[in-house]
Amino acid sequence: MEITNIKKAVLFWGILSEEAVIYLKEKFHRGFVLVNPELRPYLLGLGWNRDALSAAGLEFLYCTDNMLGHLFYLQKIKELLILYQKKMDDGYLCLSGSLYVYELAKYHNVDVKFAAGTELDLDKFSDSDASTLAGRPMYVESLLGEVEKPRLDLIKEEGDG
Amino acid sequence: MFNPPLLFPVRMQDKKILVLDETLLPWEEKYLEVLNLEDALFCLREMKTRAFGQVLLYFYTCQLLEEEYQDKSTLADLVAKKFKATRPTFDFFSLSSLLKKSLREDKPLSEIIATFLDGFDKARRRRCAALAEVLPQQSSILTICNINGELIYLAEALRNLGKEYRFYVSETRPYLQGARLTTWELQRAGVNTVLICDNQAAKVMAEKKVNAVVCGADRANLQGDIINKVGTYALSCLAGIYNIPVYAFVQYPYDFSIEKVGIEERPPQEVFMFLENIPDKENIEAIYLSFDIVPQELISGWVGLEELRLNDKRKWK
User: Fold this and answer.
1) Which of A21, A70, B145, B186 is positioned for an S-S bond with B177, CB 3.0–4.6 A?
2) CB-based contact, A76 to chain B, within 8 Å
């Protein structure tokens, strides 16, 4: 799909749940492109989320996380759905990277919704940080330096989820 | 200090061009031989080199073909046209203009190009020294993609000023230039790095782990808008939100409308580079945007080859 063919899109971030898929299905049938980001380091966009969408017969558009900024810039994304891991008293505990898309959505005046995602044991994923991709080391031994471990992001914002 | 290969990733040797195959880094340092225009276009098309490497490749391709063309201006334009057709986001015609301005009948292209590149490298060192002056005493710099060795010059300049520094490196999917190239070259030079996933940028900013963003620019216009590796726009927006300055290395800005530049969309399947193990990926609908646009109001300073220009209209949020 070329970018000019995207008229309106909904971006989701987190681990899809059955309820979220139902929600996205309704959006899909209303003509929204479902943007399924990669979700580094776990690559859930190519794993869990891809499987969930495919099982529901939903087409989606995959991209890497760093391409989302340009999609916001072009005003292609009309809504962001964040699938949190845990509801807290002061906000939502969400998958790593949620703050990235949340801030970008707010900056571009894009509507943000929160909903419960599926809870997975993230420790079981082969990629636990940026140094590997699909289990393959992206570095030369002794020339890696430090690697920032991803953790859950706390988003202190009232949502309507 | 060793000679960082990415400072000059394309070199001329006898009658052939040697191109460092950046797709194989950091695991293998291999140079491809370029013997003609088609070889050069292959390297461009297959992303064997990029950024400053494609500038070098342009000049050396002209040098390589010099004997075949009586009129050097025609040669400069022809190579620019072919290169531009292969990598549309980069403005190779600005390079042909530069080259044509320097042409002298009594001088071979090799001499003209060597003089130009020597001056360019000295300018790179000077501008890193200028940027180091404005960076904090304890600099924690977030960077994206790869700026062809200039961060090593920047680290040297910071060290000369007695400033402390470390670099947070955004991995830069899908080609992972940050993880594969920048981390590798900085670590080889003994510079402290912290590698992050691209989507961790907001988190490290919110936690005040970085206090500056430094990026390159594939193109820049006179107003200060830039086009750079995809992900730079998001970093610049986030930096504005968290009150962090953004400095962009620019070269040869010229007058053009940023909105009229076609952002290169690479073949979607290339987005799966290094993901050979993902099943059935040819059936995934994907998009691959190579670059994005950063409007001038999101940039705090342009680090040019001639001067460092600060932006007093930087937009903060």
Assistant:
1) B145
2) no
What is the C-alpha to C-alpha distance for residues A77 and A74, in angstroms, rounded to an integer? 8
A42 vs A39: CA distance, rounded Å: 6
For residue A65, give the nearest of B186, B199, B265 by CB distance: B199
Q: How many CB atoms neighbour CB B211 within 10 A?
A: 18
Alpha helix ranges (H) inside A16-147: 18-29, 48-55, 68-73, 98-107
* A7, pLDDT greater than 80: yes
pLDDT tens-digit map of A68-80: 999 999 999 999 9
Tell me whether B145 touches chain A (CB under 8 Å): no
Q: Which residues of A touch B187 (CB under 8 A)?
A: 143-145
What topology does CATH give the domain B136-310?
Rossmann fold (3.40.50)
Q: Is B292 a catalytic residue?
A: no
> For chain B, which residues make up each domain, given as ranges?
5-119, 136-310
Any CB–CB contact under 8 A between B284 and chain A? Answer: yes
* H/E run at residue B202: helix B201-206
Q: Which chain A residues touch B232 with a CB distance below 8 Å?
A: 69
Lowest mean pLDDT among A8-22, A118-132, B73-87, B107-121: A118-132
Q: What does CATH list as the number for B5-119?
A: 1.20.120.420
pLDDT of residue A159: 47
Contacts of B203 in chain A (CB under 8 A): 96, 99-100, 151, 153
For the whole prediction, is pTM greater than 0.90? yes
Average of pLDDT values for B89-112?
Answer: 89
Query: Min CA distance, B175 vs chain A (Å)?
Result: 10
CA distance B119 to B116: 5
CA angle A83, B269, B37 (to 5 degrees): 140
User: Does residue B55 carry a pLDDT above 90?
Assistant: yes
- Rounded to 5 degrees, what are φ and ψ at B98? -60, -45
pLDDT at B88: 84
Greatest alpha-carbon span in chain A: 51
> Residue range B271-277: average pLDDT?
93
> B5-119 and B136-310: same fold?
no
User: Once rounded to an integer, what is the mean pLDDT over residues B221-229?
Assistant: 95
